[in-house]
Design brief:
Blueprint (H helix, E strand, L loop, with lengths): L2 H25 L1 H7 L1 E2 L2 E2 L9 H24 L2 H24 L6 H28 L3 H10 L1
Helix pairs in contact: 1-2, 1-3, 1-5, 2-3, 3-4, 4-5
C-alpha cells in the first residue's frame, strides 16, 4: 500500500465519521439525540435534555469538518492535510476528554466503544500531522532528510 493511499484511507475514515454524524444530527436532530449511535444504543440522550438548536449546530459543524477533511483527502497537499488534522484535533481532543471524565451514564461496553472511537478520531490526525511532511513531499522536510542522509 502506498503512503498516499494510506493517507486517503485515514482521511476517508474521518470524513465518513464526520459526514455520518453531521447528516444525521442536522437532518433528524431528535432521532440523533434519541438513538445515536444506533442499533439500540443511546449515548447522547443520557447526558442532558434535548436542544434542537445545539444538535443541528453539532451536525452542521461536523459537516463543515467533513468538507475540510474531504478536500485534504482529494488534494493530499501537506498544508491542507495539516489544516484538516488540526481542525480534527481541535474538535476531537476536547470531545474525547469530555467523555473520558463524564462516564457515569454509559455501560462498560458503551463506554469502551465510545472512547475507542473518539480516541481513533484523535489519534489519526496526530499521525497525519507527524507523517504527512515526510510522505507527501513537504519541501522543508525533504531538504532536512537529504541533508541528514
Amino acid at each position: 500500500m502506498t503512503h498516499r493511499l494510506w493517507y486517503r484511507i485515514a482521511l476517508g475514515y474521518l470524513v465518513f465519521s464526520s459526514m455520518q454524524i453531521g447528516v444525521w444530527a442536522l437532518l433528524a436532530p431528535q432521532s440523533f439525540y434519541d438513538s445515536f449511535p444506533g442499533m439500540g444504543r443511546t449515548w447522547i440522550s443520557v447526558d442532558g435534555p434535548y436542544n434542537e438548536h445545539f444538535v443541528r449546530d453539532f451536525g452542521a459543524l461536523n459537516l463543515a469538518l467533513a468538507v475540510v477533511l474531504l478536500s485534504a483527502a482529494i488534494s493530499l497537499t501537506v498544508p491542507l492535510v495539516r489544516t484538516a488534522a488540526l481542525a480534527s484535533l481541535a474538535w476531537g481532543i476536547p470531545h474525547f476528554l469530555y467523555h473520558l471524565f463524564n462516564t457515569d451514564q454509559l455501560s462498560s461496553g458503551d463506554l469502551f466503544a465510545s472512547l475507542g472511537g473518539l480516541a481513533l478520531f484523535a489519534a489519526l490526525p496526530i499521525a497525519l500531522l507527524i507523517l504527512a511532511p515526510r510522505h507527501l513531499g513537504d519541501p522543508e522536510s525533504a531538504g532536512a532528510t537529504k541533508a541528514a542522509g
